UniProtKB/TrEMBL annotation:
Organism name: Streptomyces cinerochromogenes
Alphabetized Gene3D superfamilies for the sequence: 3.30.70.20
Names of required cofactors: [3Fe-4S] cluster
Xref: InterPro entries: 3Fe4S_ferredoxin, Fe-S_cluster_ET
Keywords: 3Fe-4S, Electron transport, Iron, Iron-sulfur, Metal-binding, Transport
Function field: Ferredoxins are iron-sulfur proteins that transfer electrons in a wide variety of metabolic reactions.
Protein name: Ferredoxin
Length: 66
């Protein structure tokens, strides 16, 4: 699963880092994807956390791909 954060949309609510802490971190006021985290997210629970984080991101800044 590919995942990224569009910084031009992110306004730094930090919700992604709380919902999926294995994948997202909060740095310099933005949500960021931890290096290598998404590629290793084959665990269905982690994938679900990523999907939920994307769905609940208040600015729809999380971009998912396969
Ligand atoms: S939940 Fe969305 S707006 Fe909030 S820090 Fe993460 S990417 Fe940015």
């Amino acid at each position: 699963m590919k995942v990224s954060v569009d910084r031009s949309l992110c306004y730094g609510s930090a919700e992604c880092a709380h919902r999926a802490p294995a994948v997202f971190a909060f740095e310099d006021g933005y949500g960021v994807v931890r290096p290598g985290a998404a590629e290793s997210a084959e665990d269905p629970r982690v994938r679900e956390e990523i999907r939920e984080a994307a769905e609940k991101c208040p600015s729809q800044a999380i971009v998912l791909g396969e």
